[in-house]
Design goal:
disordered N terminus; globular
Length: 310
């Protein structure tokens, strides 16, 4: 995931999935989707910031090993560190802090839906800040994704009214992540995506560890077995693979295509939360799945011109 395709000019980046993108996305969807009930279970047994920090501490050496095995350089030019710090804040730090604090107060499935309003925010940021013109199919995809979010929250408004700060926190995190997606696509970097992923994870790890020590150290104790497995899952699969995979998609696809491509993740989060944690499902969930599939197809399937060119 660190070849020359990552440095292709923004205008040349495809809006549809290649076979390579599809393979990366399939694993990303599986691991990230199943992680929502995993996180919910973990934060019910240990402090949330400490859980996130422990997962990052395990994930960072996994990423480092990946770079070593793939012979990807660790070095970042001094002139690019400021940009890297900004990308860390918008793509990782705000998302991880606000989300993990909110998870204990929301169902895992509905937290996933709130989090994956990100494609709508990404499209709005692109239009507002960067003057991006969305094609009719892209507008249809964004509208379908937004409709799916509304449907999936249909039965949650009453519950969310009891935790407005938690819901607002996840929405703010999604909005910042949408901005980060736009920034990452436009980042003028000379280093591979895996290198960016490693150093963004490293900076986020340091800050999360500091927050955990500052706010949660009096509550520390040996985590139970279930929380230990959750840390292992997050460290190896989420931080060791999913974040690097996401940054690859975000840098090699257009922001609307990359962000909408992950909309199946909250669907998997809802289903796994229902099966594992007993969270209720409603008819709106089925309709929302259809809308999400429509959104993904509208944004990612190549148009007639692209098919002829291919």
């Amino acid at each position: 995931m660190s070849d020359a395709a990552e440095t292709v000019a923004p205008a040349a980046r495809p809006s549809h999935l290649s076979a390579r993108h599809l393979y990366v996305l399939a694993l990303l969807t599986l691991f990230w989707g199943l992680n929502w009930p995993v996180m919910k279970l973990a934060v019910s047994q240990m402090p949330p910031l400490s859980f996130r920090a422990a997962s990052l501490l395990l994930g960072l050496p996994c990423l480092a090993l990946g770079l070593k095995l793939l012979k990807v350089p660790f070095g970042v030019p001094r002139a690019e560190w400021r940009q890297l710090a900004v990308l860390t804040v918008t793509n990782m730090l705000v998302w991880h802090v606000l989300l993990i604090i909110a998870i204990p107060h929301l169902s895992s499935g509905r937290a996933a839906i709130l989090g994956y309003t990100m494609p709508v925010f990404s499209a709005l940021w692109g239009r507002t800040l960067f003057g991006e013109r969305l094609k009719p199919r892209q507008l249809l995809g964004v509208a379908a994704a937004g409709g799916a979010v509304v449907l999936l929250l249909w039965h949650e408004f009453t519950r969310l009214s009891g935790a407005p700060l938690a819901a607002a926190g996840v929405l703010v995190a999604a909005g910042v992540w949408g901005l980060g997606t736009q920034q990452l696509r436009r980042a003028h970097s000379t280093v591979p995506t895996l290198t960016l992923s490693f150093w963004m994870t490293a900076m986020t790890t340091l800050l999360l560890c500091a927050l955990a020590v500052l706010f949660e150290s009096p509550r520390w104790q040996l985590p139970p077995a279930a929380a230990g497995w959750a840390i292992l899952y997050n460290g190896v699969l989420v931080f060791g693979y999913c974040h690097a995979a996401w940054f690859f998609l975000a840098r090699t696809l257009t922001p609307v295509a990359s962000s909408t491509s992950v909309m199946l993740i909250p669907v998997l989060g809802i289903v796994s939360g229902a099966l594992w944690l007993g969270e209720p499902l409603h008819w709106q969930d089925g309709v929302a799945v259809a809308l999400i599939l429509l959104a993904i197809g509208a944004v990612l399937l190549p148009d007639h011109a692209a098919r002829r060119a291919g």
